[in-house]
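Data deposition worksheet. Section B asks for the primary sequence of the deposited chain exactly as it was used as input, without tags or linkers unless they were present during the calculation. Section C holds the resulting structure in token form. Section D is free text for depositor observations; keep each observation to a single sentence. Incomplete worksheets are returned to the depositor.
Section A, Depositor: J.P.
Section B:
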Amino acid sequence: MIILIGGTSCTGKTFLAQKLLEKYRIPYFSIDHLKMGIYRSDRDCGFTPLDEDEIITEKLWPIIREMIKTMIENNQSGIIEGCYLLPEQVEALRKKYPEDIISFYLIFSTPYIRDHFDSGIIKYRNVIENRGAKEDRPITQFIEEHDKLKRKCIQNDAKYFEIEQNYEEEMMFVYQFIEEKGH
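Section C:
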């Protein structure tokens, strides 16, 4: 089984992947590592780490897609997480391999972002990976990014979990979803 965890940055994708690794003993792969490996090895790779997600996705998705297919062909399980899993691409692939792929997105509601921006989102952004520099995106950008992803999920019939009030409690629905889908 391949588990794909998408969402905007700072939603807990890497943290969730780490918890799933610990629970199921399935390795996870952070797309950020692929992005930085490609960029650091070739500064003329066609993107910078600061480019829009769609630009980076254009370069990374063909690689990620073929990694997923290879894992499926070899009957291997894995977790792949990152911002560069766009609903339209993931859903097209998942429909070809419905028995092999679990995919979903983590999204924060606008009220959740407003109520927890500093205390629950920014505070925990380095819980698994050191993201280095101080977060410079304003709260309005976070809200826009989450709204845009939610619209894309709805348009592409992609499963998403929208955190509205209590992160820990509402993440239990994600674990239940994964259990029901076959793990």
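Section D:
Residues 122 and 135 are 7 Å apart (CA to CA).
The mean pLDDT is 87.
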